[in-house]
Design a protein that fits this description.
The protein has 131 residues and is of the alpha+beta class. The chain contains 6 helices and 5 strands. α1 packs across α6. The C terminus is likely disordered.
Length: 131
């Protein structure tokens, strides 16, 4: 099942991250060990619509739609525009720069948010051909 939403062009990155996590059991276990959190992403597109996805690096090592797994809660929620998320995943900007300029809003455990960049780098490889 694709996680892509056509109204959010950068959402293809969530498929790439999920593929990366699902394709290698050792890689998934390593990501869960490093992340130890559920990361929620709330993206806003040019039309002002919002949609959300989460990356579970606490238990399952998976990506899905919504703000958290059923019965669970995100440790960190990152809110940003679809365009800025696209740049972040493509490596054209850094999360810290977006945060300092007010383009990235973080709710929850900010220190956990710093563990997200290596996971997003995995998506760069998978999305370069698609973006």
């Amino acid at each position: 099942m694709s996680l892509k939403n056509d109204s959010f062009p950068s959402s293809v990155a969530f498929d790439a991250i999920n593929s990366s996590l699902q394709s290698d059991d050792a890689e998934r276990k390593s990501a869960v060990k490093a992340g130890q959190a559920i990361f929620a992403f709330v993206l806003k597109n040019a039309q002002g619509e919002t949609d959300s996805w989460y990356i579970d690096l606490k238990d399952k090592g998976e990506v899905a739609k919504g703000e958290a797994p059923e019965g669970g809660k995100a440790d960190v929620t990152l809110s940003l525009s679809d365009d800025d998320f696209s740049k972040l995943v493509a490596g054209k900007t850094q999360a810290q720069r977006l945060f300092m300029s007010g383009k990235l809003k973080v709710k929850g455990n900010v220190m956990k948010a710093t563990k997200m960049e290596p996971i997003l780098k995995k998506a760069q490889i998978g999305t370069k051909a698609k973006l």
